[in-house]
Design goal:
The chain is α/β, with parallel strands linked by helices. The chain has one domain: Rossmann fold (3-Layer(aba) Sandwich), CATH 3.40.50.720. The protein contains nine helices and seven strands. A seven-stranded parallel β-sheet has the order 3-2-1-4-5-6-7, sandwiched between helices. α1 packs across α8. The protein is globular, with a radius of gyration of 18 Å. It starts with 6 loop residues before the first strand and ends with a helix.
Amino acid sequence: MSLKQKHALVTGGSRGIGRGIALKLAENGVKVAVHYYRNESAARDTLEEVRKRGSDGFVVQANVCRAEEITRMFGEVKTQFGGLEILVSNARPEAAEFFQGPMDITLQQWDAAFDSQAKAFLIAVREASALMPAGGRIFAITYAQGSRTGGLLPWAGMGSAKAALESMVRYFAVALAKRGITVNAISPGWTENSVLNSFPDQVQDLIRNWHKSGWTPMGRLGTPEDIGDVVTLFCSEQARWITGQVIYADGGASLMTPEVPPEIQFG
């Protein structure tokens, strides 16, 4: 699939899932604006990898929790690219800035979650759509399981923010439909080289082994490249009739029944 002559902005594109998406888009000819907040070195490394794949782009810094910085970021996109065909809203704060249970989460942590997700998406889509021609593609990276369950208590703020984000996806899908711009959410499961790697080694091992033993029917965790392939697929012209959806890209993990051990489900 060739997406040559198209331009993308990937927020949080310097590392993890965002980097995987940026590189897959570059492999398909897309020029990529690689957004970062604090780690300029990682962003420049990603841009170097974009160029090794025969494409180009630039790095752009912004704190997506601040409306004025999002607006400035899109000003740079307009200056550098002239327009935009693809927006991937992926950035989030580091876990320490929001990871707290509902009885203890501070208002500052709550705001960090909502400002970086629902509010940032609201502003970014307005800015991006002003630069987009018909056929544009907008994606929000979510975690749909966390937005509809309540067991992982420290995810309370981010889970609630992701639920609001998914709601905004549906509203924007309707608002932009007549322009032929699609708006969808991609929901990865547990993914290597992502937030998982910030957890203690013991926690990482528990999660990996749980999924390899059957909780993910395909028997492994996802990779950033897997998610990049999904985004690239939905950028194609053939995906023009799909909008307002939450796309699960998790190897089947979301199909499992929580009350039943995986060994029984596999028979």
